[in-house]
Structures are given as structure tokens and as C-alpha cells.
Amino acid sequence: MIRCLAVDDEAPALLILADYIGQLPFLTLVGTTTNPIEALTLVQQGQVDLVFLDIQMPKLTGLQFLKLAGNKCKVILTTAYPEYALEGYENDVVDYLLKPISFERFFKAAQKALALRLVPAVSAPVVPPIQVAAPLPAATSAATGHMFVKGESKNKFLRVNYADILYIEGLSNYVSIQLPTQRVVTYQTLKELAETLPQPPFLRVHKSFIVSLDKIRMVDGNTL
């Protein structure tokens, strides 16, 4: 069960979030508050696993909250301002929900949070692979080469080695590139990136995901 806290300076927004949380069996509502300072206290006391957090709030903005909370909880941002998306993902948020928030979109974000709780730690034992009915496309040895992606400032570019890429997630006009020790978010569409990556080992397995076949340990139904 994921313990959730909803933080927003508008009471109607809190009512919607509380209703959505109550409809999902793997979420439980710890509370709602219009006071981000109170919310930060609960997080620092270890009472919260996941915060649904508004960005534009008096006293303490959502982005300031993220920096103060550190890694003590996961955060899903809720806001009416899409221009904060990149900065949110650079702070390693689970997802970014634009108001008005539909239940379908909320459910997708909650599933992401659940998946993060279920993913084993890096030091966990390796799960032995299982046999699958249909073989995956043959992958070459770890991809060689690299690419450069735009950083957070205008003239900054980051080098990303193909061999380090675990998977790539499309985020509207951005992509999130998951590496072994960090996540890189850059302004580019998943379609554009898919056209430049070597295939194999990279394969687009979903409208929102590209994976490296070299990094797959197990296939279980529709789950990689």
C-alpha cells in the first residue's frame, strides 16, 4: 500500500485528488493539506510514500518543496502550468499531471509510482530469465557509439553512450533516458529519437517506450 499526501492551495483540487486516491486499492490517503510546510514535516517524519504536489503555492513552491524533501518520498506534480515540466523531471518526479486531471491520466501516474515501489534494488539478486513462447528479435552485443542530447541550458549538450541506456520513455515533447545511475531528460520526441538509435539492440515496444534488448532480464506477459 502506498501512503499518499495531496498538497494544493486550492480546496477543490484536493477533493478531486482525494476521490481519485480512494478509488485505487494500492493507494491510501494519509491526508490533504493546503500548507506545504505541514506537508514537508510529514514527509521528513517518514509518514508519506507519495506526494501529489501542486507547483504554484504561497510560502513554499512545489519545486522548492522537491529540493527540501530530497529522496524521502516520491512526488507527482499537479499543475496548470506545462512550462515547469522539464524542471520537474530534472528533479526526478514520478510524473507530471496537468490540470484539469482526468482519472485515466491519474491512474497512469499512480501505476508508475507503484512500479517504482516494486522494482528491486540494484543490489538485489538477479532474477533468472524465463522462457517465452515467441523469441525476442535477436540483439547484437552491447551497442557501441554514443549520441549528444540537449542539457538544461541553451548551449549545454550531454554525451550518452548507447551501451549505458536501459530504456527511454516518451514524455510528450520530451524524452527521459534511463541510465544505470541517473535519468536524463531532454527536449526531443520519442519518434525522432527512435529514428536515430541503432536497431537492434533498441526496439520500440510501446508508444511511450524504447528498450535496449541487451538489458532485458525477463519477460512476463506484457511486462519487461
Automatic annotation (TrEMBL):
Residues 3-114 form the Response regulatory domain. Gene3D superfamilies: 3.40.50.2300, LytTr DNA-binding domain. GO terms for molecular function: DNA binding. The modification 4-aspartylphosphate is found at D54. The keyword Phosphoprotein applies. This is LytTR family DNA-binding domain-containing protein. SUPFAM superfamilies: CheY-like. Keywords: DNA-binding, Phosphoprotein. PROSITE patterns: HTH_LYTTR, RESPONSE_REGULATORY. PANTHER family: TRANSCRIPTIONAL REGULATORY PROTEIN DCUR-RELATED, TRANSCRIPTIONAL REGULATORY PROTEIN DPIA. Residues 149-224 form the HTH LytTR-type domain.
